[in-house]
Amino acid sequence: MTSAARLAESTTPDTEAARLARAVSRLVQVPSVNPFHAGPRAEQAGPVGEAVIARTLAEDLRRCGAAEVFTEEVEPGRPNVYAFFPGRTERLVVVDVHTDTVSVEHMTDPPFDGRVESGRVWGRGALDSKATLGVLLTLLEEWQRQGLRPEATLLVTATAGEEAGGLLGATRFRSWAMERGLVIDQILVAEPTGFRPVHGLRSLVLAEVTTHGAAAHSAQPELGDNAIEAMAPVIAAFVQENARLREMAAATELGCGTVSVTQVDGGSGSNIIPDRCSITVGRRIVPGENPAEVLDRLRTLAQSASRLPCAVRSLLPEAPDGGPAWPAFYQAPDSALVQRLAEICGTVPGVAPYGANALRYSGLAHEVVVFGPGSIDDAHQATENVAVADLVRMADALRAWLLPAAPEGKP
Ligand SMILES: [Zn+2]
């Protein structure tokens, strides 16, 4: 069968599966590559960034019966979109989906064709995370047609800037919700978790460590101070710190923190004693760890190990408390939403090693959970797809959570 025939076969009949696949396909066809992931291939497909998809979504959400739709620039040309769908009660729940995608430069597949083939929707963002957006739009349209209201008032939050740049869209949404005094009961952050409710994520303190020495001709090293050689014991100290952390008792399912040296830079010529050396150090932090204390410890370790002056600075934007990073995210696994989603999907709650918008939502709602179709292992790859069967399963899960049978049937 040709792919065109397959496409026709899988999308023509107006089954729920076909409607869901078409909705996700349409979103994949609107490129929304994160500007940090820009490249010639992304640029060729249209404007890089979240502006076009935000415009599309704002229209879609209005068409699906949103009572209010807000568009808010996170950075110039990079909007978030918020849409309220009144429920049968005052309770407020949020579904947060990021609209940006990672790079398409390394893709071996057409990135934006959104074709439906072999029971899957293909293209960048199909899995991470336009799947949930497409499912949500399909459900909202269906409920509008049927005159149904969700049990709780639903705020759909489409956020820019998740894949790179420090979760700016989620940070902006947090401020917006707080400025408006929103009392949010539950937030579901859409990410591919294989239908497992994810209730914990580690955070990151990212630092640059620089040793400062003095340059000299390498024929006379004693006239200089070698900044690279001074860095060697600093790196060894971080390796030792990582070993120490591994021995610690874990407070939660997220285990212990880790330290990794991920970049090194220094030296200006093969016959010059280097006067400067910098390394990048990533320290994954777990619940209970204070980012400022973690950065202080990295500084103390580096400065004790280096015989030369050694500067340590955070590489991430400040958190609202002035600290060098946001803390880890942790929600008790026995909380109502974690348990409900696990029950609906027959899955086991868990934690995840990656970052997500949930890292910005601690304390913003009674409960925060990361949840969605497909596996994170398949995200960010040279090809990307989501199974149509998983879209159907996600629709069932969202329906069971958001639209439990009301006694009166219709509002
Ligand atoms: Zn994602």
UniProtKB/TrEMBL annotation:
<feature type="domain" description="Peptidase M20 dimerisation">
    <location>
        <begin position="200"/>
        <end position="304"/>
    </location>
</feature>
<keyword id="KW-0378">Hydrolase</keyword>
<dbReference type="InterPro" id="IPR050072">
    <property type="entry name" value="Peptidase_M20A"/>
</dbReference>
<dbReference type="Pfam" id="PF07687">
    <property type="entry name" value="M20_dimer"/>
</dbReference>
<protein>
    <submittedName>
        <fullName>M20 family metallopeptidase</fullName>
    </submittedName>
</protein>
<dbReference type="InterPro" id="IPR036264">
    <property type="entry name" value="Bact_exopeptidase_dim_dom"/>
</dbReference>
<keyword id="KW-0479">Metal-binding</keyword>
<dbReference type="InterPro" id="IPR011650">
    <property type="entry name" value="Peptidase_M20_dimer"/>
</dbReference>
<dbReference type="InterPro" id="IPR002933">
    <property type="entry name" value="Peptidase_M20"/>
</dbReference>
<dbReference type="Pfam" id="PF01546">
    <property type="entry name" value="Peptidase_M20"/>
</dbReference>
